[in-house]
């Protein structure tokens, strides 16, 4: 029996195990194969550059947009491009307007967007649950404003998972005491008011999005959020990750990270950070007796956490014990400490360094366990890659 005589179910079963390039090759063997595999080919689309984006808009039929479930777009210029920063809003609108069943969207932008033109299209993406937006270029020369990122996220009616990567804060939402080396967006006053958030299109306002469950801030400057206060009904956030920024001021960033942790509300269960948390903060906890506080002068308590994840690439060993002391009242059940760079390393020298660091971290954890009694703690996992892993179970 030849391939063309096999039933459709077997064709689809085989295609399920093929990598994308082989699926495309198989679709070109016959018209029937092309028709059968078309939904699979377009279910996950990745566009790697500005020129590829323009080509997609020009040559791919608009009706194929309904087949796309996951879409990743980078607007970086070509190697020989004469103009590095080009507004790609028109092409993005053209694609997104056809993606009626899109579930996951990732944008890596080499230049900002026209918020007035693209925000209405985002409101039509009713099936998108996962959204990632970041800056491809330099924040100093081609930033992506927090006002645009927040407006787009708030326009997605079913958004549950949001990632912001190297998004630049707006001067409209930062006081005049910021450090001079921190890049800010100065020309984003034209971003229109949002139906949900109004003019408060700052990153902390994301806590008001009713459907949001997970928030990941990667390389985003948060020092200006030290005294953040989010009023009104909060999102039911279950997971938050804050990596820290290269523009950090250690003490201020630590206070800002704790402010974020307090502001996330009582539903939060998982928190990951690459920011050392200082000992100067009070460590009250939400617990079962938590109530909404109407007095903004009262410091909100820390939430009860099921999982606390430490980015050991960014957090120094000397900061581990002070960090855990700050979070004593959070009744953490599981602690995970991972150095992703060490885990990915394959060369002998880096592996040897990982082994040495692992031993130091292991000793620090042993010291913590002998000097603290956390009744809630069930496990601690330490992972620096192959041969440098350990789990403590209680």
UniProtKB/TrEMBL annotation:
Q: Which InterPro entries match?
A: LRR_dom_sf (IPR032675)
Task: Return the protein name.
Answer: F-box domain-containing protein
What organism is the protein native to?
Suillus luteus UH-Slu-Lm8-n1
């Amino acid at each position: 029996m030849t391939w063309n005589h096999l039933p459709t179910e077997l064709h689809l079963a085989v295609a399920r195990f093929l990598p994308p390039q082989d699926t495309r090759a198989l679709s070109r063997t016959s018209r029937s194969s092309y028709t059968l595999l078309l939904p699979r080919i377009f279910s996950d689309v990745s566009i790697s550059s500005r020129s590829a984006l323009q080509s997609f808009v020009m040559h791919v039929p608009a009706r194929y947009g309904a087949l796309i479930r996951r879409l990743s777009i980078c607007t970086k210029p070509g190697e020989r491009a004469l103009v590095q920063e080009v507004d790609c809003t028109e092409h993005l609108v053209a694609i997104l307007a056809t993606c009626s069943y899109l579930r996951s969207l990732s944008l890596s932008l080499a230049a900002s967007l026209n918020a007035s033109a693209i925000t209405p299209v985002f409101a039509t993406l009713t099936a998108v649950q996962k959204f990632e937006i970041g800056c491809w270029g330099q924040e100093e020369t081609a930033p992506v404003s927090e006002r645009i990122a927040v407006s787009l996220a708030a326009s997605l009616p079913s958004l549950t998972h949001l990632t912001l990567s190297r998004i630049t804060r707006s001067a409209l939402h930062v006081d005049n005491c910021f450090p001079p080396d921190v890049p800010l967006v100065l020309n984003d006053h034209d971003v229109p008011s949002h139906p949900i958030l109004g003019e408060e299109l700052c990153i902390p306002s994301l806590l008001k999005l009713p459907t949001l469950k997970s928030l990941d801030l990667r390389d985003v400057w948060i020092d200006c959020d030290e005294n953040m206060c989010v009023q009104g009904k909060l999102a039911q956030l279950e997971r938050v990750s804050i990596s820290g920024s290269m523009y950090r001021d250690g003490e201020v960033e630590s206070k800002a990270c704790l402010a974020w942790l307090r502001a996330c509300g009582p539903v939060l269960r998982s928190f990951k950070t690459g920011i050392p948390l200082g000992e100067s903060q009070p460590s009250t906890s939400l617990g079962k007796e938590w109530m909404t506080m109407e007095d903004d002068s009262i410091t909100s308590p820390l939430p009860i956490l099921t999982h606390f994840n430490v980015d050991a690439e960014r957090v120094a060993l000397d900061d581990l014990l002070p960090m855990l002391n700050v979070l004593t009242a959070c009744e953490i059940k599981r602690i995970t400490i991972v150095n992703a760079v060490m885990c990915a390393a394959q060369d002998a020298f880096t592996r040897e360094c990982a082994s040495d660091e692992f031993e130091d971290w292991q000793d620090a954890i042993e010291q913590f366990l002998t000097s603290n009694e956390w009744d809630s703690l069930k496990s601690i996992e330490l992972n620096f890659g192959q041969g440098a892993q350990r789990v403590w179970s209680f």
